[in-house]
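Recall that a protein's primary structure is simply its ordered list of amino acids. Everything else, from secondary elements to tertiary packing, is in principle encoded there. The following example makes that idea concrete.
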Amino acid sequence: MAGRSGLASAGDLPTNDNDTHGGSSGGGGGGSAGPYVDPASVDACSDVAVRLLPEGDAPPGAPPRLLLLGHNEDMTSDTQGRVYFVRASMPGRAAWFALTYAGELASTAFGANTAGVAFTLNALYPTEALLPGLGRNFLSRRLLDAASEPEALAVLGVDGQATGRSVNLMCTQPGRAGVVNVEVGPGGSYDVLQLRPGADDWYFHANAYDRLPQPQKTDNSSVHRK
C-alpha cells in the first residue's frame, strides 16, 4: 500500500539543509533510472529478511519459521575505527541497541529496542531532495524509541523528509510479529510491503527504489546485487 502518515510536523524535528542525497532532476518513476552514480561514491549496503524453515535451517529450540533480519554495512574507508555499537537506556523509554558512526545519531544502519521493534536501513537516492527538510538520521533515532509497529510506521511516514531510504521493520510483539519493508521518498511519500507468513521466505533490498514511483539516481552495484 502507498500513502502518507504523520507523527509530527516538520517543525517538531531539526531540519537538514545540506542532505547529501539530493541532486539534479531526472526522469522516470516507479524505481526508474535517472543520472548514473559512480558506485564507489555511494553506499552499497544490503538488507535481507530470511525466514528459517524448521527442517534443518533453524537452530534447535527455535520457534517455527524463525525470521531473521540481516544487514551488510558498506561505508568509505575514512570511517574505519569510527564505528560503534551503542546501548542506551533512558527513563520512561525502551532501552535500545544500534550501530552508530562517530558524531552521528543512531542509526543509519540497524537497531533494535526492548519494546520489540527492530530495523535495518538502506540509503536510497532520489534525483531531487526536499530542502530544507528533515534529515533521515533524526527519524532513524526516533525509530529507536518506537513502542510499536504502528508508531514506527508513523515515524517513517512523517511529512517534510529531505530524502529517501528503505527500511526493513520488524516487530516481535505478540499478535503483530512480522516484517514489513518501507520505501520512503522526499516529503514523506512511502510504500509499505508486508512479508506474508508462510508465503514470503526471504526478501532483499539494495540502494534503489523497487516500488515507490520515485525518479532516482542509479548505480551498477544495486543492479548487480538485485
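The chain has a mean pLDDT of 76. The helical segments are 136-143, 149-156, 220-225.
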